[in-house]
Design a protein that fits this description.
Blueprint lengths: L2 H36 L4 H9 L7 H11 L8 H30 L3 H35 L6 H27 L8 H27 L24 H8 L3 H17 L6 H9 L3 H5 L1 H19 L1 H4 L1 H25 L2 H28 L6 H34 L5 H21 L5 H20 L1
């Protein structure tokens, strides 16, 4: 495939990631801020409700393995990607309606109703998590299917840059769509803005997913089923897949390190917008646009790393560099709060995004390299499992830590409570960066190829 054609393909595939980025702004940005600040829902309950989407992440392995074996009209990944997208768009609308229902209970000061409806929201996000697993895991496997080892760092840079484009564009467009309701002191105005938003956003996102995915995946034909060395008829059972997964010690090690890195990277996700509101007195639209600042920095980091850093330093050293810088700039966010300086806060957030982009690109390059052509969906499911549970724990943990530190300071919205969360995040990023140095892709490939050959031989016998 020519470089220009491959670039255009990567941009198109990136639209899917852009949609996920916009959805994260809507759910973990706008919904999160409204529930905690405007509707006075406890931070721990809010984080639990929104973080529940990651509790079903164990299904990523199953969805990945099923996509490896799927043969629907010659397609493996596409049915899962589009079907999952349809489901999570519908569930986004339902979640938005529940947020408004919680707002109604909050306006009546009905604490018990707020709690019950918050738990219903958690149940919806469990289903939302299933839909995300069914769609995003086969999508990542599709990236392996359509690229070579040499193309992969560039593909990661482009596709995950589009994720940041989605976050930035989502933050700008969604806050603009809310319009004057952001600056309004009346909850009814804010509720009207959210009601309009949840009607339009899911439809637009699903249309973009169709544009991104339809027709991209090459169909499996009778000739391709009997290709040399990688027959698609050699379907590997889930039990055999587990045997291969256990063959390399690098699988367990990378799972642990990826979990720690993802947890630390997203620990601020549940507290960033409330931090902007509580410490810097920003309104809803202003805190929503914080995602754009962080996203632009991350976009810069991800987009340049695959071209500038990974080819020169290697993925492991690049991950260490990103982890060190991320920890430093997270601490600068704390300093900005102590100074009560909004410009310093925004600058630190941008720099943290850039550093996070560097380490994210490096870890994703490692992740896509730790796969096998016959089991791409299964391996991506395992890595997706690590990321999803870690991100879910980070969302829940951020709110829980905020409440925990708030008990010692007298308020979950105090500067000291937020500072405690950010300091924990910085420590985790530093440790993860150091641990990524020990990931050995060559050792992984040797062990997995040996186990795969043994399993295929035994199944043919």
């Amino acid at each position: 495939m020519g470089s220009a054609r491959f670039f255009l393909l990567a941009i198109r595939l990136g639209l899917f990631q852009a949609c996920l980025g916009a959805l994260s702004v809507l759910t973990l940005g706008i919904f999160n801020r409204l529930l905690i600040e405007e509707f006075a829902v406890p931070a721990a309950l809010t984080a639990l409700a929104l973080g529940c989407q990651q509790l079903v992440a164990f299904t990523r392995v199953w969805f990945g393995q099923r996509s490896d074996r799927c043969r629907w009209r010659g397609l493996r990944r596409t049915p899962f990607i589009i079907g999952g997208a349809a489901a999570f768009c519908v569930l986004t609308w339902i979640a938005g309606r529940l947020v408004l229902w919680i707002a109604a209970a909050s306006m009546l000061d009905d604490a018990s109703a707020v709690t019950v409806r918050g738990l219903l929201l958690a149940a919806v996000f469990l289903l939302y998590g299933l839909a995300i697993s069914a769609s995003s895991t086969p999508f990542a496997a599709l990236l392996v299917d359509v690229s070579t080892d040499k193309q992969r760092p560039v593909l990661v840079s482009i596709v995950w840059s589009m994720l940041m484009v989605g976050i930035v564009a989502g933050a700008i467009l969604l806050s603009s769509f809310l319009g004057s309701s952001c600056a309004s002191a009346e909850l009814t105005d804010v509720i009207d803005g959210v009601r309009r938003l949840i009607l339009v956003a899911p439809v637009v996102i699903f249309v973009l997913v169709l544009i991104a995915i339809a027709g991209v995946e090459p169909r499996i034909t009778s000739n391709s089923r009997h290709g040399k060395g990688q027959s698609n008829d050699q379907e590997i059972s889930l039990a055999a897949s587990w045997t291969i997964l256990r063959a390399s010690p690098q699988v367990g090690y990378f799972f642990a390190v990826l979990s720690l890195f993802t947890f630390s990277l997203f620990l601020q996700e549940a507290v960033l917008e409330p931090y902007g509101g509580a410490i810097f007195a920003m309104d809803v639209c202003a805190t929503t646009r914080l995602n754009a600042i962080w996203g632009i920095g991350t976009l810069l980091g991800i987009a340049t790393t695959g071209f500038l850093f990974v080819p020169r330093l290697g993925a492991q050293r690049t991950a260490l560099l990103g982890g060190l810088l991320s920890a430093v700039f997270v601490l600068l966010i704390v300093v900005a709060g102590g100074m009560n300086s909004e410009p310093v806060f925004k600058g630190a957030l941008f720099l943290f995004g850039a550093a996070a982009g560097i380490s994210t690109n490096a870890s994703l390059t490692l992740m896509l390299g730790l796969t096998s052509p016959l089991m791409a969906g299964t391996f991506i499911g395992v890595w997706g499992l690590a990321q999803a549970y870690a991100r879910g724990l980070a969302t829940i943990g951020g709110g829980a830590l905020l409440s925990f530190f708030g008990q010692f300071t007298g308020s979950q919205n105090s500067f000291s409570a937020y500072a405690g969360v950010f300091i924990v995040q910085a420590i985790g990023l530093l440790i993860a960066g150091v641990m990524l140095l020990r990931v050995d892709t060559n050792l992984f490939q040797r062990k997995v190829e040996q186990a795969l050959a043994s399993v295929l031989t035994s199944e043919l016998d």
